[in-house]
Amino acid sequence: MTTETLISIKDLVKTYRTGDVEVHAVNSISVNINKGDFVAILGASGSGKSTFMNILGCLDIPTSGEYLMDGVDVPSRGRNELAELRNSKLGFVFQSFNLLARTSALENVELPMLYNNKMDAKHRKVKAIEALRSVGLAERAHSMPNQLSGGQQQRVAIARALVNDPVIIMADEPTGNLDSRTSYEIMEIFQKMNEKGITIVMVTHEPDIAQFAKSNIVFKDGKIIANEIVPIRKNATEELKNLPAITDIISAT
Amino acid sequence: MRVSNLLKVAYRSLNRNKLRTFLTMLGIIIGVASVIAMLAIGEGSNQNIKASIASLGTNTIMVFPGSNSQGGVRGGASSIQTIKLEDVDAISSHCDLVNHVSPVDQKRVQVIYGSQNWNTMVMGVRNDYLTIRSLTISKGSCFTPADDRAAAKVCLVGLTVVTNLFGDENVDPSGQIIRVNSIPTKIIGVLSKMGQNTFGQDQDDIIIVPFSTVQKRMMSSSTYVNSILASAVSEDQIADATDEISSLLRQNHKLAPSDENDFTVRTQSDISNIFGSISKVMTILLASIASISLVVGGIGIMNIMLVSVTERTREIGIRMAIGAKGRDVLIQFMIESIVISFLGGLIGIILGIVVSEVVAKFGGWPTVITPSSIVLSFIFSAAIGLFFGWYPARKAAALNPIDALRYE
């Protein structure tokens, strides 16, 4: 299997300055992420993983160091170019879903395409419905976010992340607000997407969720202390089968 | 993002806070409406003044004697008598652009009828005077040129004089003899009611007598004329007619080219211009006071847009994370403020027109809505939307996506 390097990070440093105190949120990190990877980033709060994600997601610029993404030298880009990069190459999934309120699922999914002038309205709608179908929510296209459950909202968010055909999905604690069954459902979607060749970088603090990824990167005090392949990778579909059904729990009591 | 999408997003966000949007818009509505109403009232009074000056006759020309100057002491206007009856005849026969001309002698006199007496103005004029001033006779008849030549002791009286001498303005005093300046004069007609002029003078408090009657029987001087009233063939030719009269009089008075005129020629358009400029100043004053409310409305827009940007910080963060550029966010918020001021401007125009009509109908004040006032206030309100919307939109566009996403 040929591995193509998608993200290449070398000596990445991000320093925050609070008064006279310099805080190295990310301290000289070097890491490569290949095409088709499914990486889980673990670490305690304040370990620098969120800062790292922000830089990885082109939302922030490192203080120093190299960052090449799909051949693009990210740190040298301006605000508008970063926005274009996020729009065309990245998809975001957040812990708190971050759907636009009072905006239907379909329109939420269409949103990234609105900032991409190449597409006409008709094509946009077709693509958005397709993306919703891939997360199993085609029939809820016209529901408002407040009419959807947490898991469904997260699936809409995933559809939104997918719709511009990104090279990487950036997921920041995607299961943080969900129960374990729904978390597994989300992981099932991620694993299926990953099988189709989409690279996924996911921040999580739940070790069992990290087991669904192909490899784990562990952060501590702004440094990577471990970067290893997951030895026994969990399969979400299997795990879901093993979970006791809710009806079983009710009948057991 | 395309304009149609931007408009949709703006509509949705404005629609979400209907009351707030309406109240914000109200500032602009009231501002635009008051600017339009004030301009309409100003323009209405301007035209009203012009019309009432025009009722004096817009093509009338008045010739007064000049001022004298002796040993460096200058007399006031008409301080010398330079105009003679021959001048009137010369104007009448030589000036092609003048179609009517009449000498005017006026004097305050005591008039007596029976036991009643009254102090009024007697005017000695020729028939042309009545034509120039558009005076008509309501009862009886006018004197004739023959009466003038004969210095006949006949007169026309105004309604105020009738009321004061005969007790009631409905009395027909034709044929009665009144004593004007001790001279028994027969009333042959009553002038139609003219009411007050622009300056509040009672135009009915008057007695009109043939010119030569006044000159020969009531005035001490016999050759000079107080003033001349003439009318130009048309309003456009007033200036030419004025020049014609001036050069004729200079020639008749044998003035050297270096001499100043020994007479003054005035036209109604001078007076009308003065009043026009006064009313223009008033209009500008009213409109600028009204435009203050428009500016206050603009500040209201800015205030609400700032609140809206803060409220939607997270939305801005989401949009930026998925690829919105600063410019996209800027335009999105600009469009919202422009929509508010644009719609507010439209509604304000309608309200302004309604207010003007109501003022005209129930306030008895003439109002005239000019297209330019509508265009002006509309452009002004749109500019205010742009100006006051820019800062909040700029603030939204400058947000850092990470901070915006984290905003609670």
Shape of chain A: globular
Average pLDDT for all residues of chain B: 86
- Strand ordering within the main sheet of chain B: 4-5-10-7-9-8
Beginning-to-end CA distance, first to last residue of chain A: 50 Å
What is the straight-line distance between the termini of chain B? 26 Å
The major β-sheet of chain A equals: 6 strands, mixed
- Return the average pLDDT of chain A rounded to an integer: 89
Shape of chain B: elongated
Which stretches of chain A are poorly predicted, pLDDT < 50 over at least 5 residues?
Answer: none
Could you state the order of secondary-structure elements of chain B as H and E? HHEEEHEEHEHEHEEEHEHEHHHHH
Q: Structural class of the secondary structure composition of chain B?
A: alpha+beta
Chain pair with largest interface: A-B, 27 and 22 residues
Helix content of chain B: 55-70%
Summarize the structure.
The complex is a heterodimer of chains A (253) and B (408). Chain A is of the alpha/beta class.
Describe the protein.
The complex is a heterodimer of chains A (253) and B (408). Chain A contains 9 helices and 10 strands. Chain A has helices spanning 49-56, 79-89, 105-114, 121-134, 150-162, 180-195, 207-210, 236-242, 246-252; strands at 5-18, 21-34, 38-43, 64-69, 72-73, 90-93, 168-172, 199-203, 215-220, 223-229. In chain A, strands 6-7-8-3-9-10 form a 6-stranded mixed sheet, with helices on both faces. In chain B, strand 8 and strand 9 (183-191) form a beta hairpin. Chain B has a 6-stranded mixed β-barrel. Chain B has a two-stranded antiparallel ribbon with strand order 2-3. Chain B is 55% helix and 18% strand. Chain B has helices at residues 3-16, 18-54, 85-94, 127-132, 145-149, 159-166, 211-218, 238-252, 268-311, 313-321, 326-362, 371-397, 401-406; strands at 60-65, 69-70, 73-74, 98-113, 116-125, 137-140, 154-157, 177-180, 183-191, 206-210, 227-232, 263-267. Chain B starts with a helix and ends with a helix. By secondary structure, chain B is of the alpha+beta class. Chains A and B meet through helix 2 and helix 3 of A and helix 1, helix 10, helix 11 and helix 13 of B.
